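Thread: zinc ion complex, take 2
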Amino acid sequence: MDTPRFQDIKEPRPTQEGLTAAYAGINAALDRGDRAAALANWDALRRRYETWSSLVHLHFAQDTADAVAKAERDYADALAPEAAELETALKRRLLADPDRAALASLAGDHALRLWETDITIFDPAIKADLEEEARLSARYTELLASAKLEIDGKVLNLAGLGPYAQSNDRETRHQAEQVRWRFFAANATVLDDLYDQLVKLRHRMARTLGFDSYTPVAYRHLHRVDYGPDDVARYRDQVLRHVVPLVGKLLEQRRAANGWDRLRFWDEALVDPAGNPKPIGDHDVLVDRAQAMFDGMDGRLAAFYRLMRNGGFMDLKNRPSKAGGGFCTSFPTAGVPFIFANFNGTHDDIGVFTHEMGHAFQNWESRHQPGVDYLWPTMEAAEINSMGLEFLSYPGIGHLVGDAAADRFRRMHLIDALAFLPYGVCVDHFQHEVYANPTASPTERHAMWQRLEAMYLPWADYGDLDFLLKGGRWQAKPHIYGSPFYYIDYTLAQCCAMQFWVRSRQDYPAAMDAYVQLCRRGGSAPFQDLVRSAGLVSPFADGALEGVVQEAAAVLGVA
Ligand SMILES: [Zn+2]
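Output below.
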């Protein structure tokens, strides 16, 4: 097989006329009673469209200052609701097929369930609201990207603060947080106003679609077909009971180890009293050393990484006009995904690299799934693939941090994983309250956050950081603005990823094999089915979280 190369992946720009004609052809096949041809043509069309759309958004992220890339992204964003309308109309027609069994044998039962969910949350009547929602979300992204923060004689963006915020020097960490939150305070009115508009807009869309509130719309949008808000509320409660006390103990341990009178907010990022272990080298060193790490983990993973490197399917270096963050995107016509990150020299480089490689490996392993709906699972399942690989990389992590720091890195990663859970469920609980009370004022929303924060993050000591003292911490979290209700997915996945960690300590090859099989299943089943098929316990089951938390507490020496 020839090595696929990123530069060879090309897809012509679709037009509304072209899409309309293509859908007319698919409908004509259905008119003739040829379901198989209709579904095959539709799948091929969606693969081409998604490949094109992924390329457009990736090119823009690689250089946000490129006017051509920006114009192409605007074109894609304007075409998306039109494509969604054509797609939803076809899903409606297919689901009206009286011979359900024949349809299911071709498309798959789970795909039909996904389409049934989709058709309840799209109506041409909300097209203008959807465009407005995209515009408001984009304004938030642009506002954060515009941050010019001065520290240490340099001007940095928010991501650039990372190394300062986890510096060994306490005063530097404090300064980094002062600079960060001064930026948010200076934009407080805009941040409140944008969120207020988004909440009211989403509530209005829900009402137009016939729902009482936005919450069920968001659950459907995220394809949560096998659990609901009550299950999520019980999970948050598990975190409150089993994780919050443990994180409190870990932070108290750190306070004592450092000899501080109290542990401030800016101390939370310094997990290791000796300094958070850093990557062994820069981008080129990490990319090279990772091959040895993956070689030692699993042959399939190692071969895949070689293919990603040789084909140019990675862009991990930080550059001035590059978009922030890390992600994995895919090109369904080609099968090989692409990972994107901004290395900054901290341990986050290793976290984001193993995380995005997990997403990429899953997408590669599931490339033979029959339909485009199954290439990615729902997000909480997808995050098991990514967070799971972070944990499965533990034995070989010395390749990336140096053998002397490997134990300290694993300890830091495990503490971070636990400490994330209370914050993650707090973000989720907050959003449930916000959308249950869509007429609340910005001041009332800040009060809601403060009440929840006191419950889930009782240790938070903001010192002189006024913006945080006034309940503004959530406003730095892009998901709250742009991806409502998504955040709980990371915490559900963490519970599952930690189960892989527990199993890998008992039998590494067996855990790795179960992981690869889970990746291969892609999105062919709902979340809890995928979890059980991998031999894991659903996070909603009693004791699932408690079990992994106890194991982690024992390993960390915190009983
Ligand atoms: Zn992820």
